[in-house]
Design goal:
mainly alpha; about 90 residues; about 85% helix; Methane Monooxygenase Hydroxylase, Chain G, domain 1
Length: about 90
């Protein structure tokens, strides 16, 4: 198993903490703009985690797979990256 990336974990923990606060804000009927600002912070943390994880994947799993002689493996890896980046935008 691969070692955990502390940058990814930190971003996810920050997002989780903010989400808990946002739920409370919504339940308490706090000002919409304040809630939206907190949602933007969560989106930023998740984007940061996603980018870090994608970079990690490209530099490890993807790079290793692309050195394979199997065209099938290479095409599968390329399709995975295309799919995950499509969903993420």
């Amino acid at each position: 198993m691969k070692q955990c990336n502390p940058k990814v974990v930190l971003s996810l923990k920050k997002a989780r903490s903010h989400i808990d606060k946002i739920i409370t804000m919504v339940e308490n009927g706090e000002y919409c703009i304040d809630v939206l600002q907190q949602l933007n912070a969560v989106i930023g943390y998740l984007r940061s985690a996603k980018n870090e994880k994608l970079s990690e994947h490209l530099n490890t799993c993807f790079a290793k797979g692309m050195s394979s002689k199997s065209v099938k493996i290479k095409n599968k890896l390329i399709e995975e990256v295309i799919q995950v980046t499509k969903v993420a935008t």
